[in-house]
Design goal:
The chain has helices spanning 6-13, 34-42, 58-66, 83-86, 105-112, 130-139, 153-159, 170-178, 218-228, 236-243, 248-257, 271-281, and strands spanning 28-29, 47-52, 69-74, 93-97, 118-124, 146-152, 179-187, 192-193, 200-207. The chain is α/β, with parallel strands linked by helices. It folds into 2 domains: 6-207, Rossmann fold; 218-280, Helicase, Ruva Protein, domain 3 (Orthogonal Bundle), CATH 1.10.8. The strands form 2 sheets. A 7-stranded mixed sheet has the order 4-3-2-5-6-9-7, sandwiched between helices. Strands 1-8 form a two-stranded antiparallel ribbon. The protein is elongated. The protein binds S-adenosylmethionine (SAM).
């Protein structure tokens, strides 16, 4: 059964009375070149794969061919009837029904992948929660090698931008703190059913063993970063003083100590400079 074939997808979904829910980000892949490429980029035969949102299992099947074991988490209960049939031939796959944002993924990894050398996350993410899912995966400090996911093209550009470039934002800094990001390939909107209004891209976040920079207080660092990118048109001093309790003088002093111009914009700052400012403001 080719789950990327439009007629096959329709023949599975129609009898079940399944209609796509936009609120769940349901755009299913119907391009059979994409999932094998994603699976090959994400994992190998010693690895366990955590998939978020299998849909009817088009990516799950390809992951099961490459990986040792696949655990797929699906929120939509209506797929309870469909997935056992579409994944009938995959004996190394388990589906857990629940919300990936609420389940204890550390516990799932510990319990389900005890016999796997390494673990990764691979998914065609529901676009309505792309950033929260990626941040949750990184902040949970899961024992994973990489996060290989399909996201909207614009999100891919932001997530994988260089910190210190115009495209960077708070999430770029957070991603770079925990991982080395790369864009693998682009995917045309016509590769999905229903077709979304934008193109997509597959990105790989290679999770670091230790953060890319040293900060004295992680919580303070991330709240400073969030504040720094909250008002993109303003200078760093203005936006940070508007959105935190620090006075302009105190922020200017921190910049002066680090030889950074008082008129600098947040998007011009490097990871190291952001870390130094955060440590200095402490
Ligand atoms: N993997 C399939 C594919 O590539 O065709 C489906 C991808 S579709 C973009 C996103 C999937 O995520 C849907 O199956 C949707 O029901 C599921 N989903 C949405 N929110 C979820 C959540 N919070 N936890 C788990 N799955 C979720």
């Amino acid at each position: 059964m080719n789950l990327a074939d439009l007629k096959t997808v329709e023949s599975i979904l129609r009898p079940a009375g399944f209609d796509f829910k936009k609120s769940l980000g349901q755009n299913f892949l119907i391009n059979d070149a994409v999932c094998p490429q994603m699976a090959a980029a994400a994992c190998d035969g010693d690895m366990g794969v955590l998939e978020i949102g299998p849909g009817i299992g088009v990516l799950t099947v390809e992951l099961s061919k490459v990986a040792k074991r696949v655990v797929a988490i699906e929120l939509d209960d209506r797929l309870r009837k469909i997935l056992p049939k579409s994944l009938a031939e995959c004996d190394n796959v388990e589906v857990i029904f629940g919300d990936a944002m609420k389940l204890d993924l550390n516990e799932i990894i510990k319990e389900k992948f005890a016999d796997c050398n390494k673990v990764c996350v691979c998914a065609n993410l529901p676009y309505y929660i792309t950033s929260p899912i990626i941040m949750m995966l990184l902040e949970s400090k899961l024992p994973i090698e990489n996060i290989t996911v399909m996201v909207q093209k614009e999100a891919a550009e932001r997530l994988c931008a260089e910190v210190g470039s115009r495209e960077s934002g708070a999430i770029t800094v957070a991603v770079n703190y925990y991982a080395e990001p790369e864009i693998l390939f682009e995917v045309d909107r016509q590769s999905f059913m229903p077709a979304p209004k934008v193109d997509s891209a597959v990105i790989k976040l290679n999770v670091r063993k230790a953060p890319s920079i040293k900060v004295n207080d992680e919580k303070r660092f991330f709240s400073l970063v969030k504040a720094a990118f909250a008002q993109r048109r303003k200078t760093f001093v203005n936006t940070v003083s508007n959105t935190t309790g620090f006075s302009k003088d105190k922020i200017r002093e921190a910049l002066h100590n680090l030889n950074i111009s008082p008129t600098v914009r947040s998007e011009q700052l490097t990871m190291e400079q952001l870390a130094e400012i955060s440590n200095n403001l402490n």
